[in-house]
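Hi C.,

You asked whether I'd gotten around to modeling the 144-residue construct. I have! Everything is below, sequence then structure, no commentary in between.
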Amino acid sequence: MRELTTRVTSPLPLLLLLWGCSTLAPALPRYIVTANPLDVVGTGLGLCIAVDPADTQGIWWWQPGPSGCASRITGPTVFRAERGLVTRFTGSAAVFASFTLQLHEGSRDVKLALEDSEMRVTDSGIRVSTARRADLDIPPAYGR
């Protein structure tokens, strides 16, 4: 009886097998969002803030609803921040963001640092934890 042997001359079948068995790391959701309201102006009034690290102007804010940053009392949607600027330095995991917030008595420049699942107001050091979201479809608190 003759024995059949097959000789592999191309690495392609092995590569396809390895590629098919590998798992890709899931992509991170696009937005970094405050888990709780952040007092950005030091008055006790907290805002919810979202940052898109891949968008140089990607900052949004809303006033929290009764369930915190998971709902909003402003709208009709979240607000794109005025003069938003998002910066990420090569080799650093930190993201820096700034924007101008209009107040009844003028405006305030807000500067933020995002690192290690936290967002911090750089002037005051006030910080909150963050979460990732795939979208900014924050529902209104009162069914508007």
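If it helps when you're writing up: The longest strand covers residues 106-115.

Thanks,
B.
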